Here is the input.
Amino acid sequence: MTPGTRLLVNAQGERYRFDPGSLSLELMLTGGPGPYERYEIAHTPSDLADWFTGSRLGLTAPLTDVRIRPAELTALKELRDTLYRVAPALARGEAPSDDDLAKLNSATEATPRPLVDPKTRKLAWAPPVTGKQLLGAVARDAIGLVAGERSGRVRECSADDCHLLFFDTSRSGNRRWCSMERCGNRAKIRAYRARTETA
Here is the structure.
């Protein structure tokens, strides 16, 4: 599977692929506050380190040496909770709160450092990649969604029973579904049934 694409399981046990299109929105899939606590997968620093190795940061260069300390795990979860307020506001066309923007701004101090691997002459991340650097990468990505060239493209799935958020990477900017495998397919089936019943 391409880094950044996640295999999710719905309440009925069906599996489907979902690419949120953004590192910050991808982090939201690891759990969250309130009703999202039941989806928590980042119980320990090593849990989150393992998760990051499959993240979209791997599209740039493989993540092989990720080290997250307990305090960094806490900071990443706090940033994730902030994203649960920022991203839905963006999807509704609303401005995030000044407090939440300040939290994003304050987290961008460090990011993973790219380098050229002398053996392969390919791009790599300077080891080790720390939790603080990952925090900075996620915060910078979120800032790009709020104010960068990518602003205005955060969407919520159009299905009534789905609240997944994604960055719309489509050329036309009219992506509606979290995944064509799941919600898009269900919508097509409903539309087909409605047409055949009318006919």
Summary: Residues 12 and 158 are 19 Å apart (CA to CA). The two ends are 41 Å apart (CA to CA). The mean pLDDT is 91. The helical segments are 23-27, 45-53, 70-91, 98-106, 131-147, 180-198.
